[in-house]
Amino acid sequence: MAGIDVGQIITALIAIIAVPLALLGYIILGEQIIERLSDSLQGWIRPYFWALPAIGFATIFMVYPLLRTVVVSFRNNDDTDWIGFSNYKYFFTFPDTLTSLRNSLLWLVFYTFFAVFLGLVIAILVDRVRYESLAKIAIFLPVPISAVAASIIWKFMFDYQPPGTVQTGTLNALLGVAGRDPVAWLINATTNNAALIFVGVWTATGFCMVIISASLKAISSEVLEAARIDGANEFQIVRLVITPLLWPTITVVGTTMLINALKTFDIVYVMTNGAYGTDVIATQMFSQLQHNHLGRAAAVGVVLFIAVVPLLVINIRRFQQQEEQR
Amino acid sequence: MSVGTTTREAVRPRSAVSVIDRFGAGLQRLPLHIVIIIFCAIWVVPTVGMIINSFRSVSDMGVAGWWTTLFPPHGFTFASYQQVLAIEGVAPSIVSSVLITIPATVIQLTIATMGAYAFAWMKFPGKNLFFIVIVGLMVVPIQMTLIPVLQFFKLVHLNATIIAVWLAHSGYGLPFEVFLLRNYLGGLPREVFESAEVDGAGHSVRFLRIAVPMTLPAIASLTIFVFLGIWNDLLVALTFLGTSQYRPFTVVITGLVTSFGGGWQFLTAAAVLQMALPLAVFIALQRYFVRGVTAGSVKG
């Protein structure tokens, strides 16, 4: 294990011990000082004192950067001069960026739909068998796996060799068994986006399933039994009873997936690096950043943010409703 | 909320059914079992296939699929692991991953718990507004913040240091953690805090002796979730560490995948090493793990 920097290890150890200690000192010393103040002053200062580190971090790393990115998006690539809407014009007219926009829309629709739909279907199916917990573990298995590892896993599944040679990729070997020609899944323009989106769905279905399954368990068996006595068959029960009852959960999971779809970066970056027309907004932004095109990258970021705003509003509304119920 | 629990009893009465009827019913349910097994296979086989491949030689991987190894001669070998670990920078990057992940987790959870306490148990002007901003920040894509944060790190001479990544991860993780812990802390019984106050305990005592111990289950789930999130992160490390010598494992693997082109097959070993920790944590701490992952989306 050569090449390990001892200095970094010491820095890390200091951080692990010193940061909590420093915050502990901050709390105890700060409280001592605050307790000496007049009562009204205490009530004023104390909450801000406690919330300050969190609010400070959120401000430095999120609120200020958000505003600053909007400013940078109207500036040139070195961030030295104002150039109006040129960066946006570039984003909405240049073929490469338009491709990334199209692909992100594909992710938004298909990734979200299939992750939630499959999560729902599997949750309902496994609810009816005795090996439910085992089946759920199987479906959930990709969730803890990083997108980097998942991408390598699926690079093998999609592996392609020219026709006539041995297919070592699982999918093309299966096609061979069926007597079909191998497909270059990740290069072929008709399959590559679908293939990448499928990998995304594969990593997310377990998450959707677990959450939907938890609400499914909360539906009382009496409701289902009543429907059965009324002569409903299993498909009608799923469609007319279970799905409507699960709808609030489905929308919550759905918004989470929409946000994931917009933020998609790792899978595309590792598997194709955006080549062969698979770029998405997030990889497009990263490559602009790597080319030091700050203004253009910022404009892409703003587009991404604008896409998130409706979800942001939904999230805040839901939060406010929950607060009223507290 | 665990993967493994079934709370509802089987619905159909079983006692009055004859053996033949039961066999018939079982046959009727056969399609159900087949569908479930196909789903399970799609979700498990790729991972298993790659793990098997990581124990094969690169030349074997080139001439036959992983499934051929299921029959003798197996030809298992650790060659890929030796090859991967021998690449310059791979072994140190695993250490870097640990050095990034642990402090970043500790820093943000300490700050988040403090902030959550203020939001749950103190009254102050602007509290609701601040908290709504935090709820909003939970969905903001971090891409939106990368450029200014990068400029900020350059300004304070932290760019491409491990400290920058700790701070960035902490900033990005905080909104969700404050939100979650505040909901949990706010659900604790008011009487406990009030009686402590009557006994003369100040806020620091109430926080350290009551709030933190009573929130430990939530903190534990969150710790697992945050820890693995950082361990698996690619974008933040890629942006703020770039080509520095402290790149974590995910960044180094990604660099190898994109630069190798043809001979990338032995990187299966790297992928297995990278996912070993998350999988071990998932299997060992299933209940906490699932609770941590799902806590954000489902209330209560």
Named at the architecture level, the CATH assignment of the largest domain in chain A is: Orthogonal Bundle
Per DSSP E runs of 2 or more residues, the count of β-strands of chain A stands at 0
CATH homology group of the largest domain in chain B: MetI-like
Number of structural units classed as domains of chain B: 2
CATH topology of the largest domain in chain B: MetI-like fold
Profile the largest sheet of chain B: none
H/I helix tally of chain A: 13
Query: What is the CATH C-level name of the largest domain in chain B?
Result: Mainly Alpha
CATH third-level topology of the largest domain in chain A = MetI-like fold
Computed over alpha carbons, the radius of gyration of chain B is: 25 Å
Helix content percent band of chain A:
over 70%
Give the % helix of chain B. Answer: over 70%
Q: What is the count of DSSP helices of chain B, taking H or I runs of 4+ residues?
A: 14
Low-confidence stretches of chain B: 4-13
Intertermini distance of chain B: 11 Å
Q: Which ranges of chain A are low-confidence, i.e. pLDDT below 50, for 5 or more consecutive residues?
A: none
What number is the mean pLDDT of chain B?
83
List the SSEs and their pairings.
The complex is a heterodimer of chains A (326) and B (300).
Chain A: H1 6-35, H2 39-72, H3 86-93, H4 95-126, H5 132-140, H6 147-157, H7 170-177, H8 192-218, H9 221-229, H10 234-263, H11 266-271, H12 281-290, H13 294-325
Helix pairs in contact in A: 1-2, 2-13, 3-13, 4-8, 4-10, 4-12, 5-8, 8-10, 9-10, 10-13, 12-13
Chain B: H1 19-28, H2 30-54, H3 58-63, H4 79-86, H5 90-121, H6 127-137, H7 146-155, H8 162-186, H9 190-198, H10 203-231, H11 235-241, H12 249-260, H13 267-284, H14 286-294
Helix pairs in contact in B: 2-13, 4-13, 5-8, 5-10, 5-12, 6-8, 8-10, 8-11, 9-10, 10-14, 12-13, 13-14
